[in-house]
């Protein structure tokens, strides 16, 4: 299994980026998928989560800090998940990781995730 995150870069505050996470070795439609991030000197934290298609119709969850600005989505044909980030702030600067889990549970809990991508760096300049 491999999760390949991409799309990071340098953007000005207020700008937008779209991150992608291409999966191989698993189908994103049958996994609960999530994005986490880790800012310099801080612990990794939950960002967004999308349930597999058969659980609550693929509903989503977001951290309060990104709610209304970020959108997680899934393209089953491309076997890829996305994170559309709008209204970026300097505090969004971090390495962003995608993750996948088969089990149900609290989206924010990192331990149960089975697979992690390598991360993509997002830098927001103020």
Please sum up the structure shown:
The protein is mostly beta strands and 126 residues long.
What does it look like?
The protein has 126 residues and is mainly β. The chain has no helices and 11 strands. The chain has strands at residues 2-6, 9-12, 17-24, 32-38, 45-50, 60-62, 70-75, 80-85, 94-101, 115-116, 120-125. The strands form 2 sheets. Strands 2, 4, 5, 6, 9, 10 and 11 form a 7-stranded mixed sheet that branches. The chain has a 4-stranded antiparallel sheet with strand order 1-3-8-7, with no helix packed on it. A hairpin with a 6-residue loop joins strand 4 and strand 5 (45-50). The chain starts with a strand and ends with a strand. The mean pLDDT is 95.
Main sheet properties: 7 strands, mixed
Spatial extent as radius of gyration? 13 Å
Number of strands: 11
Instruction: Report strand %.
Output: over 45%
The stretches of 5 or more residues where confidence is low (pLDDT under 50) are none
For the record, give the distance between the C-alpha atoms at the N and C termini, rounded to a whole number: 37 Å
How many helices? The count is 0
The ordered H/E elements are EEEEEEEEEEE
Broad structural category: mainly beta
Overall form: globular
What level of helicity do the residues show?
Answer: under 10%
- Give the overall average pLDDT: 95
């Amino acid at each position: 299994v491999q999760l390949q995150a991409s799309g990071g870069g340098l953007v000005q505050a207020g700008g937008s980026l779209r991150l992608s996470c291409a999966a191989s070795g698993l189908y994103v439609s049958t996994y609960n998928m999530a994005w986490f991030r880790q800012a310099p000197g801080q612990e990794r934290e939950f960002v967004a989560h999308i349930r597999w298609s058969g659980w609550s119709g693929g509903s989503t969850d977001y951290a309060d800090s990104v709610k209304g600005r970020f959108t997680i989505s899934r393209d089953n044909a491309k076997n890829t998940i996305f994170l559309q980030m709008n209204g970026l702030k300097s505090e969004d600067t971090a390495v962003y990781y995608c993750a996948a889990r088969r089990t149900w549970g609290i989206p924010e809990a990192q331990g149960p995730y089975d697979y992690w991508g390598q991360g993509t760096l997002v830098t927001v300049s103020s």
